[in-house]
Amino acid sequence: MATVEAVAASQASASTKIAEDVSQWTLMRWRFARNRLSLFGLIVLIILYLVAAIAPFLAPYPYNAIDTEYIHTPPTPVRFLNGQLSICPLTQFMRDFRWEYTEDCDRAVPIEFMVRGHPYTIFGVPFETHLFGVTQLPPPKTTPVRKPEAKADDPLAAFMGSSGESTMADATQPPRVFLLGSDIQGRDMLSRILEGSRISLTIGLVGVALSVVLGAVLGTASGYLGGLFDDLVQRFIEIIQSMPTLPLWAAIAAALPPTMPVPQRYFLITIILSFVSWTGLARQVRGKVMGYSSLDYIAAARLAGCSHMRIILTHMLPNASSHIIVVSTLAVPSAILGETALSFLGLGMLPPAVSWGVLLRDAQQIQSILLHPWLLIPALPIIITVTCYQFLGDGLRDAADPYSG
Amino acid sequence: MITFLIRRLLFMVVTVIFISMISFVLIELPPGSALDAKLQQFRSRGLNVTSDVVKSLEERYGINDPIYKKYWKWISHAVYGDFGQSFYLDQPVSSLIGSRIWFSIGMSTAALLFAWLVAIPVGVYSATHRNSLPDYLITVMQFLGVAIPEFLLAIVLMFIASWYFGVEVGVLYSKQYRDAPWSFGKLLDLLSHLWLPVVVIGTHSTAWLTRVMRANLLDVMGAQYVQTARSKGLGERAVVWKHAVRNALHPLVMALGATLPALISGEVIVSIVLNLPTTGPLYVQALINKDMYLAITFLLFLSILLVVGNLLADLALAWLDPRVRLE
C-alpha cells in the first residue's frame, strides 16, 4: 500500500510542481511508478537477486552433496505433527528396478530454523547458519515399517531379500528434507536451484552489459562518423543478423573445450551471448545518434568548438541513455534464455557448474520426467525471471518517453 | 520492381558469401578436429596408428593448411554441391543434409503459417475488445508465450501428451506406417505426429505477432479514414476487417525478418528435444564431435534459409506497399 500512497503523493505533487522545472528522469520515475505490472516485475526481480546472493543460507544442503540413499526422492511432505512443522523419515525400497520410499510418521522429527549446517561464505564472510534444516535423530523404531507388497514375480526383490529394504531405517543421521525432491545422485533440488540461480540470473546480465558497451560505442561511432566506417559496421551487423541466433551461439560455444574451469567458461559464455545481442543495440543507438546530429543543440556545441569526443560523451550519450537502458532490459531475457538453451544442449555451462539449464538437462528424457516430475521444477524460476524482465522492460519503454500521451 | 529485385538478389549473394566465410572461420578455427576423434576410434579398435599414418591422413585432409586455403578448397567444391565428407559418419555431407533441410523448411513454414493464422484473429479480437477480460487473458498468455523457452514447452507438452493422452511422442510415424510406402494414410499419420512440434515452434512467434498485431490495429483504429468509414455508416465488421486490418498487416510482414530467426532457432532445439529427424540433432552432434564440414554446411544452410525468407518477406512487402520500392 505504501507504494500506492507514494504514487498518489507523487502525482499530487506533480500537478503543483509541473510548472516548475522537473527533470526528465523524475518524470520517467513517476511514469514508471504508475505501471503496476512493471513495478511488480521490478520487485520480484529484486527479490530473486537477493535470494541468489544469500543462496547458501537458504539452501539446507551443499548443492553437490551426493547421497545414494535418497536417489530420486519425491518432494518431502512437510507435516504439522506434535505441535511443530515436521518431516517423517523415509525408508528406501527397490521395486520394479526403481527406488521407492515409504514414510514412517510415528518417528517424525521437527524442522528447525536458523540451524548450524555446512559452512559457506557470502561475499567472503564465513557462515554456518542455515535458514532451516533437520538436525535431530528420529526416535528408535518401535513398529515395523509398512512395506509395499512386493510382486511375487519380481526377481530383484527376491534377490535383494524380502523387498530390497535398505539399512537406513536405523539411521545414524538425521533424515533429510528435500522440499523439491532430489535428483539421480540424491542431491537436493532446492539447494541446486538456489545455487543455479547465481549463474542463470547473472550470466545474461553480464552478457548484456558487455553488449551495451560494444553496441553503444560502435553504434555511436557509426552514427556520428558515417561514411565508410558506418557502411562497414552496418554490413557486418546485417550479416550477423542474417544468421539464426541459436545455431550461431551453439557453433561458437562448441569451440570451448569441455575441461575449462567454471569461471573462465562463465566469462566466455557471456562474451558469446553478447556477440549477437550487441548488433540490435548498435542499430538503435546509431539511429538515435543520427537523429540527434541534425538537432540545433549539437550544431551549437559544434560551433562552440567542442571536440567530437565531448559532443558524443556529454551531449549525445546522456540523451540516448534512457533508450539504451530500455533496449538492454529487453535484451536480458533473451540472453538468459540463450544460456539456458545452450546449457540444456550441453554446450553452455557444464557440470559440476549448476545453472537452471544444466538442471533441466536431467529432464531431457520423457521417461525420466514421467517417473520423476519434480525434475521439471527448475523451469519455474526461468519463466518467472523472463516474464518479470518483460514486465520491467515494457514499463521502462513507456517511461522512457515521458512526454508522450 | 525489377531493379529492386535485382538489387536485393545481388545483396543476398554477397551476404551468403560472407556468411559462408564466417561460418567456416568460427567452426574451423578452434583447435582439434574430427580427425582426432577418428584416430581415437582407430586406436580403440586396437589398430596401431603410427605417426606416419597420422601425417598422411593430415595431409590428405589438409589439416595443417592455412585457413584461407582450406576455405577455398571447400567453397570451390561447395558451389558444385559437394560439401565435403562427414568425418564422423563417413558419408558425404550433401546426402546427410539433403532430406533433413527439407524437413526443417517444412516445419518452419508450417509454424509460421500457424503463428499467422492464430496471431491475426487473436490480435484483432484483443485490439477491438481492449481492456476486457479476454484481452487481459490474451496479454498474459502473450507474456508467458515469450517467456517459456521452446525446449521447455516441448518437454511439458510431450509430458502432457504421453501422461494424459498416451500419445506416442518423439516419432514421426505410428508403428504400422513406419516401413510402409507413401500413401494418404501415412501422410495423415505423419501430420498427426507433426502438429505438436509445429505448435511448439510457433508459440513464441505467435505470442509476439499477436502483440504486434494488437498494437498496429490500435494505431490504425484511431486514424481518420477509419472514422470516415464509420461515419459513412459501415458496419463495425467491415470497418475492422476491410479498412483497418488491411493497413495493420504491413508491420506484420516487416516483422517476418525478426520472426524467422526465432522459428529456425526454435526448430533446431525442439527437434532435439522431440528427437525429430530434422537438422537440429545432427547439427549439435556435429558441433560436439567437431565434424567440421557437416557443422559448417548446416550453419550455412540454416542461414541461407533465413536470408531467403527475408528476401521473400521484402518482396511481399514491396508488393503490398509501393512506397518500399522507391527507397
Structural summary, described in words:
The complex is a heterodimer of chains A (405) and B (327). Chain A has helices spanning 2-17, 24-34, 36-53, 55-58, 155-159, 189-225, 227-241, 245-253, 262-293, 296-303, 308-345, 356-360, 366-371, 379-400; strands at residues 79-81, 84-87, 90-95, 98-103, 109-110, 112-122, 125-133. In chain A, strand 3 (90-95) and strand 4 form a beta hairpin. Chain A is elongated, with a radius of gyration of 28 Å. In chain A, helix 3 packs across helix 6 and helix 10 (296-303) crosses helix 11 (308-345). By secondary structure, chain A is mainly α. The two termini of chain A are 26 Å apart. In chain A, strands 1-2-5 form a three-stranded antiparallel sheet, with no helix packed on it. Chain A has a two-stranded antiparallel sheet with strand order 3-4. A two-stranded antiparallel sheet of chain A has the order 6-7. By secondary structure, chain B is mainly α. Chain B has 15 helices and two strands. In chain B, strands 1-2 form a two-stranded antiparallel ribbon. In chain B, a hairpin with a 4-residue loop joins strand 1 (85-86) and strand 2. The mean pLDDT of chain B is 80.
Please name the defining characteristics of this protein:
heterodimer, A: 405 residues, mainly alpha, three-stranded antiparallel beta sheet, two-stranded antiparallel sheet, 7 strands, 56% helix, B: 327 residues, two-stranded antiparallel ribbon, 2 strands
Nutshell version of this structure?
The complex is a heterodimer of chains A (405) and B (327). In chain A, 56% of the residues lie in helices and 10% in strands. Chain A has helices at 2-17, 24-34, 36-53, 55-58, 155-159, 189-225, 227-241, 245-253, 262-293, 296-303, 308-345, 356-360, 366-371, 379-400, and strands at residues 79-81, 84-87, 90-95, 98-103, 109-110, 112-122, 125-133.
